[in-house]
Specification:
monooxygenase activity; monooxygenase; FAD-dependent monooxygenase; Glutaredoxin; 443 residues; four-stranded antiparallel beta sheet; binds flavin-adenine dinucleotide; FAD/NAD-bd_sf; alpha+beta; five-stranded mixed beta sheet
Length: 443
């Protein structure tokens, strides 16, 4: 019997499984689809995600697939420079989500079980029972990372309040049979206009369209080449010709978040816990950060040394971060609507974001670098994660009784760093108290 089941082999579920395995747990990932999707919703990694993947030695596997290092993020299409951010990686990596997922999956000890859609969940005092692909699985805990339409969320009847979708958009990857002159041929920040075209590898183009026709058609209407052709002609003129449509999907701007990320022995992560308009490149990154915040806490719980409240601190720390992203993406959605008043607000916001302090504050938010948690003093930028998921104590002797949970390293600046990279002690008196508070009492 595994220690933990994970529902969903998207980026959030895979990284959660990786973190749990790193900490020595047995994990089984249950995935609905028969094979990994070659299609990518997200096309970018924010700096904090790049740091996290680098610290876990996962960045090298991504390198061959990196198509751009963009020195900026954007707020509803307004470029937000990243070059002065306090990080080794002051850029967004242009990379397709499928490569990120594949790189993490390749590092799992236990292969993902595919064709295993979760259809039932029950829990008792000792564990959870999950039906997936017609079979029953039992474990102590379930991480629900089964995406924005989460079945686990529905099965548990978990409250998912927020605002409904008001606008409908289509994302599609296409090949073009005809191209207008002057079409960009390198990766760039997406514009917010309907019909922008971003060149991907292999002659593919990513487009997002959201004109009057998309608002009229229902969310379940199939996306046709003719619909895309009309939208792209409107945006680029008569020379553009849609060839093959490789993948297309409709999505909206609903913004919702679970009231509670923990339901007994079930913990939600990624899009299963929060959905919003994918503007500003936030969703995948939020899910990756959920996974690294949850992984070490759940591992400590399973191994029996989690201090009281540690597992619940997953909700306490991560819920406000996603709540803020929902505010940010809802504001960005308003700036993007075709309305003269929205254009006026955009002009003012653009001017405000030219003020260095304002730009820096928004850059820290979009990049994920500005995230801090109560009782921590920011992230350590130069302390790679311990390969076995332990915390790291730099530049100070470790008191007896914590060596199973804390690795020691030499270094000039004393720090105690959680397995997810956040600093919880910086050399003042009280190291033993900090160790107990975060990692449990000495053995
Ligand atoms: C058009 C578009 C563009 C985007 N661009 C960006 C971007 O640039 N940057 C960014 O950060 N984010 C972006 N996002 C958001 C990002 O793609 C998501 O936030 C991200 O995929 C969430 O990862 P996840 O692992 O939580 O969920 P998912 O990637 O949705 O993975 C969930 C997994 O669960 C599986 N599953 C579903 N139901 C079950 C079940 N019952 N049992 C078992 N398995 C199940 C699914 O098959 C899937 O593999 C974009 C989204 C869209 C739609």
């Amino acid at each position: 019997m595994p220690d933990v089941l994970v529902a969903g082999a998207g980026p959030a579920g895979l990284l959660a499984a990786f973190e749990l395995e790193r900490a020595g747990l047995d994990v089984l990932v249950l995935e609905r689809d028969a094979r990994p999707s070659p299609q990518s919703k997200a096309l970018g990694l924010q700096p904090r995600s790049v740091e996290v993947l680098a610290d876990r030695d996962l960045l090298g596997a991504l390198e061959p697939h990196v198509q751009a290092r963009l020195p900026a993020g954007h707020f509803s299409g307004v470029p937000i420079g990243y070059t002065d951010l306090p990080t080794r990686f002051p850029h967004q990596l242009g990379i397709e989500q499928a490569h990120v997922a594949a790189a993490i999956e390749a590092r799992l000890r236990t292969p993902v079980l595919r064709d295993a859609a979760v259809t039932a969940v029950s829990q008792d005092d000792e564990g959870v029972t999950v039906t997936a692909g017609g079979r029953e699985y039992r474990a102590g805990w379930l991480v629900a990372a089964d995406g924005g339409h989460s079945t686990v969320r529905a099965l548990l009847g978990a409250a998912f309040p927020g605002t409904p979708a008001r606008t409908s958009l289509v994302v599609a990857d296409v090949r073009l049979a005809g191209k207008p002159d002057g079409l960009a041929d390198g990766w760039q920040l997406p514009s917010t206009g309907s019909g922008y075209l971003l060149p991907l590898s292999g002659g593919r183009f990513r487009t997002v369209v959201f004109g009057e026709e998309q608002q009229r058609l229902g969310r379940d209407a199939p996306v046709t080449a003719a619909e895309l052709q009309r939208a792209l002609t409107a945006a680029h003129g008569p020379d553009i010709e849609v060839g093959e449509v490789l993948w297309a999907s409709r999505f909206g701007d609903a913004a919702r978040q679970l009231e509670r990320y923990r339901h007994g022995r079930v913990l939600f992560a990624g899009d299963a816990a929060h959905i919003h308009l994918p503007v500003g490149g936030q969703g995948l990154n939020l899910g990756l950060q959920d996974a690294v915040n949850l992984g070490w806490k759940l591992a400590a719980q399973v191994r029996g040394h989690a201090p009281a409240g540690l597992l619940d601190s997953y909700h306490d720390e991560r819920h406000p971060v996603a709540a803020r992203v929902l505010v940010s993406t809802r504001a960005q959605a308003v700036l993007g609507i075709p309305d003269p008043d929205a254009a006026a607000v955009r002009e003012i916001v653009t001017d405000l974001l030219a003020v260095p302090e304002a730009r820096h504050a928004v850059a820290m938010e979009l990049s994920g670098l500005g995230v801090t948690y109560p009782g921590t003093s920011g992230r350590a930028t130069d302390v790679p994660a311990a390969p076995d998921g332990r915390a790291v104590l730099v530049g100070a002797p470790l008191p007896d009784g914590w060596a199973d949970r804390v690795e020691t390293r030499d270094g000039p600046a004393p720090r105690l760093v959680r397995p997810d990279g956040y600093v919880v002690w910086t050399g003042e008196p009280g190291l033993a108290e900090a160790l107990s508070r975060w990692f449990g009492p000495p053995r």
